[in-house]
Amino acid sequence: MHATVEGETGGAESASVGARPAGGPTIDSMSFSDRLVLWLHIGFAIFTIGPVALAISSTPRYIRQRDVAVVRYLSRITVIFTAASLLVLVFGIVLGELKHDFARPWLTVSMTLFVVAIVLLVLVIRDQRRAIRALAPAGPPLQAAVPDEADARGDADATGPAGPEPPGTGQPGTGQPGPAQLGPGQPGGNTAVAAHVASVERGRIAAMGGVVNLIWLVILVLMVWQP
Question: CA angle 153-143-191, nearest 5°?
Fold first, then answer.
């Protein structure tokens, strides 16, 4: 009788040791299709989110340098890889369905943060295009439009001594308006307005880009930790 009780107890203990914890399947128990979806999910996360993070982090620098060609290239990269990063979300949803993990809160939080990041990236793309439009008509630097000193002296000799300038002019002897008199409809005024718009967009892109990169890090922590 005593041996029978011990045998039953030992069998119960061995059954409890061999039992798997409740939850989704582990890596060892995943089928080939599950592994393929997981591979695609991780692969798209690496090769799409990385270029997007680099592009939006580099954009403010080249806006400050007024390099329109590079800003336009970075905007194109942001658009392409933001669209491609949607596949990360798609394969993540498919993987969650296969593993029956949608009831877990960390997965819901991760998907919500991913959608927020996509919305912010759309706003970043809009601001990149605004900065491109602001920088594109700016043209060459202002010193290229200032006449050479010898040319100015020759023009003064040809036309004779200049008379008194009317009040309100900012550059005596040239008849050209000064910076204070430049309005938005004049070339110098347009350049000033464009520079201001580009500066504002640069700050917005830097702020939203920092938030997006922080969201990527939070999602990565949730994917690894799975609280």
Answer: 130
Residue 149 vs residue 96, higher pLDDT:
96
Chain position carrying tokens 């296969």: 98
Tokens for 114? 């991913």
* pLDDT per residue as tens digits for the range 186-219: 444 577 888 888 899 999 999 999 999 999 999 9
* Structural tokens at position 161: 């001594």
The tokens describing 17, both together, are: 């040791």
For 109-127, the pLDDT digits (tens) are 999 999 999 999 999 999 9
| Rama region for 40: left / alpha / beta (φ>0; ψ in -120 to 50; rest) | alpha
Helix (H, G, I), strand (E, B) or coil at 91: helix
Closest CA to 162 of 149, 175, 151, 171: 175
Inter-residue contact 131 to 69 (CB < 8 Å): no
pTM, whole model, 2 decimals?
Answer: 0.67
